[in-house]
Amino acid sequence: MWSDNETTVDYLNFGVVADACAKLLQQAKGTPISVGISGGWGVGKTSLVRMIEGRLKNADTPGKNTYVVVTFNPWLYQDFEGARSALLQLVGDEVLRLAAKDETLLKKAKKVLKRINLLRLAQLGGEAAATLYTGVPVGSIGSAIMKVGGFFGLGGKDDADDPDEADDDEDKEIAGKEKGDALLKPAEPVSLPSEIQAFRDALEELLDELKVTLVVFVDDLDRCLPKTAISTLESIRLLLFLKRSAFVIAADNEFIKGAVRVHFEGTGISGEVETNYFDKLIQVPLHVPRLGTNEAKAYLALLLMERAHADGIFDEQKFNAAKKAIPERLQTSWRGDAVSTEFLQAQAGLENTPMVALMELAEGLAPLLTTSSVKANPRLMKRFLNTVYLRSALAEPQGIKLDIPALAKWHLVERCNEPLANALAALVTSGSDGRVPALQAAEEVAKDPSKALPDPFKVNDEAFAREWLQLKPALGEMDLRPLLHLSRDTATREFGADNMTAAGRALRDALVVATASNAPLTAAIKAVDAAQAGMAMARAWQLRAGKRTWRLAEDVTTLIEPCKVFPELAVQASELLKAAPVAKIGPGIIPSLYEQSWARPILDAWEASSALDKTAKNAIQAKKKAK
Asked: Which residues form the KAP NTPase domain (predicted)?
């Protein structure tokens, strides 16, 4: 199975984008910069962020600059107040850690942390905010704040008031308490704008002395509730555009617009304001590259290779070579170097039959997963394959033998064209022993673009259906009941009762492949009674529908041979033959049919029809004269 976590392994040719973004951050040389990575859910924003982080770690210049990366995920702080202050606290903790080895810098880091604590309190509102704004304790919370005011640097006291600066010396403890109590005397109100500027100045100075560029990655913003998203963006403003700072914000632009609409609901803001809100925070907008068929094919191929390697059917050396060669191929695809089936099979090894089949599967799935509702979304493609391999794991314990391409083909129609999947499932009945003649016929028709698909394939999305029908393997000749049984996680499946005996099924299979009368076929017919022979004849007739040309004697062997042994089946055979498309009938089918007395009335009707081909009509007339 493939996890849903971000990765630094580049299957999507994101490396060039990560290189460009990392270079932008380096070229800033301490100048504030903000980058917005935009893209929909599951397109790979987090993976791209991780790749950028890896490149920055290799760009440090000892003594001049070190990139310190802090990742903030507001989704973990879903409640409104938590997200507002968590980012500030995360930055404060990081600078405290960086300054820990230098006593002078440590004191400055603690000053920064004090101001962060003050700003966090101001964000709380109520008694805390009122106390800070007025300098007078308001309520129990305000009194508590004033008592420990030295910790927050309130009342204009010097940093020596910080109880953290005291050691275990009793005199210092007492002094600290006395000074803390002095805060209960007339205090000075806090000027929040001044505190914000002081915090920014202190942090900027500290980063410069540490020779550090602080890079803050804000991820999963588009998973948050609107209030949390907006509060996070508001907190970002306190840190934005400081020297030696950089922000990389990964979020779907459309989601941010929606959050802004919710935040300013009732104010009558325009769509332009929604767009500008995020744009004002972002200097460099970067969209995650959209994937086309070429990229989707490469991604699927690498995922399938990865799984095959884990299963021991793909050599590690070849897998490592493919991980390098396929992304390189994508880099030059703009000049026509497509990720073709031949290219993928060469990477997999032409001698490795299972891998060749998997590469054909990637080739077939890619265009349909690109143009359908999946839209080549990497996360959805992973989930698609996870479902396929899960069903494969469930098949073996239940005695079901199905290969990955067959499972994938069925799940594809379930995932991308549910009405068609339901229609096909409804046709899988005991009457055809799990086989769907209409599907078999449609798979033949789909190969010719000039021919229209029959129902139910031409409803909903005929273009998808035509491509899907041409995917390997063909499902028309398969018993689809095992596939439907494994897909009960998506729908309830009923298959009905099966009244055929083992000998009846053997006869059915023999009639499907029979091209002429032969002793083993006659023996198989005689091994059953008339009822079983009738069921076998009807089912074999349905199963051969897609291969029937209506011009060869072998096309009617399925009807003729059972009637020789059981004449009472003639009525049933006549009904099946009456449904023949008269316009398609050729002269080759006439002689063997004319020998059967039960078929002659049908031949007379064909002869009288204006739709019958002239050569077939001549053949009927010739047989009549010869008789």
From this structure: 16-393
